[in-house]
Amino acid sequence: SKLTNLGHLEMTWRSRVHFHPLLVRILHKSRLRYYGKPEKKMDMPYQAYFEVADGSGMMSMVLWNSLCPEWYHSMKVGTVLLLAKYAIKTSYPFKTQPTPGDSQMKRFATIEICLNVRDPPTEISIIPEEMVKPEWGLPEVKYRFITRSELDDLPHNHSCDVIGLVTFVGRAERTRKREHSEDFWLYRWAHAIDGTSDQPFILELFATSQPDVFERIHPMTYLVCTQMRVIQGLTENPSRTVYLTTSNESQIFITGWHKGQPYTKDTRVKNFIKWTKSQSEADQIKKTVIGGYYPFPRPPDSFSKY
């Protein structure tokens, strides 16, 4: 069938009601959002954002309501989609923006693609990777992996991806989303090393929409975290307080989940795997810890400094 592209959509969407099919690759995926309220009677009040791209640039795509439980887990970063009978709307101005791996990619920020059950009922097809043709011109997923030795020099709120060997994972903890709120965020602390520094990555991992992975993080697993944000200098001694926290678009992967992920081709990931092969597993196991309370940032050594 006749296809359109994202750049053409942005120029012509106001003058059209029906749009030609789109062929896009998913570059980023947000956590699933539940927006149900007791007074509103909705069957499936769910929403998820994706950033999708073709040869012309990148645009947001929103999966609504009952399409979320049906499609959310099948739509992975790197998945190629054929979309027909979708809607176009002006984009929501307050949503979070992931940092693209390719800084040269054009971003269409004024509109977003809406996938709905009706008005119109969207047709979604997943194209298997082996059937994707180079002439379609779809961009590859690119990452911004950093090593632990580079972390201390990065600015506050910088976006990056990391890979490391888990040496510590804390128990799951809760924090209120807002003061006096009944809603909580679930998170846990983890340490991961990559052989480039004596210090580990300190990771604050909030539960994303991957409960199967979040619950199974344990020492000696290879942990990949994407779209992490750098948190710098909470106290006078910044070298001890730099850590990474998850963002709305973070994805977490552990041993057993890596196969087929686009980051396996990344040079930094290959270098890390080479380093792990040079390590003695027995030596690393002796240094690992699991569970317990992890106060962070750590309080000063003496009460007078506090």
From TrEMBL:
Gene3D superfamilies: Nucleic acid-binding proteins (2.40.50.140). GO terms for molecular function: single-stranded DNA binding. The gene is Radx_1. It comes from Elachura formosa (spotted wren-babbler). The lineage of its organism: Eukaryota, Metazoa, Chordata, Craniata, Vertebrata. This is RADX protein.
